[in-house]
Specification:
By secondary structure, the protein is mostly helical. Helices cover about 75% and strands about 0% of the residues. It is built from 8 helices and no strands. InterPro entries: RNA_pol_sigma-70-like (IPR039425), RNA_pol_sigma-70_dom (IPR014284), RNA_pol_sigma70_r2 (IPR007627), RNA_pol_sigma70_r4 (IPR007630), RNA_pol_sigma_r2 (IPR013325), RNA_pol_sigma_r3/r4-like (IPR013324), WH-like_DNA-bd_sf (IPR036388).
């Protein structure tokens, strides 16, 4: 190996050894050397990504902390240490970018509030509607009651009902329409 190749591989081997030392012994000297070598590079990389010096600094600090924590996950056989380091930096930048894009939840948002308990008048109205529907359903033939139950209470699709009952889908649709027409007329009579 010529001297130029030796100079190119020596720093990469040093970085690998530093990461392994951090993982094995929580070696602060190795981490300090790694920090001095890589923090400016990571900051420059993240500055290109964020275009914000403070954000780049913060993300670089997060990256170095992640390197300290994840040093045990580094596998030199999977690639160079620099690729591992910059992958961590990239993933931290992606997480920060996604977090920034995600809207904050407002706990006072009406869409997040639970539905209020119905008052007595609403409960009575719901009960009367339920009773009226029940009476109207009793006036229908059992075949039509079954179709309405399958379609709207069990939420089965028309094709599922057709298969289940062994009927053509067009027949199922027309029978459901007929059942609704009769149900509507029965509800008007009940009122």
């Amino acid at each position: 190996m010529n001297t130029e190749q030796e100079r190119a591989t020596a720093p990469a081997e040093d970085v690998s050894r530093q990461i392994i030392a951090i993982a094995a012994h929580a070696d602060m000297d190795a981490f300090q050397a790694l920090f001095q070598d890589y923090s400016p590079r990571i900051r420059a990389y993240l500055l290109k990504m964020t275009r914000n010096a403070q954000a780049a600094e913060d993300l670089m600090q997060e990256t170095m902390l992640a390197i300290w924590r994840k040093a045990g996950q580094y596998d030199p056989s999977r690639g160079p240490a620099s690729a591992w380091i910059f992958t961590i930096a990239r993933n931290i930048w992606i997480d920060a970018w996604r977090k920034q894009r995600r809207p904050e939840l407002d706990p006072n948002d009406p869409a997040l509030a639970a539905d209020p308990e119905p008052d007595a008048a609403n409960l009575m109205e719901q009960r009367q509607s339920h009773d009226a529907l029940h009476k109207a359903m009793q006036t229908l033939p059992q075949e039509q009651v079954d179709l309405i139950r399958l379609s709207f209470f069990d939420e089965a699709s028309h094709s599922t009902i057709a298969k289940q009952l062994g009927l053509p889908i067009g027949t199922v649709k027309s029978r459901i329409r007929l059942a609704f027409g009769r149900l509507r007329a029965a509800l008007e009579d009940v009122k």
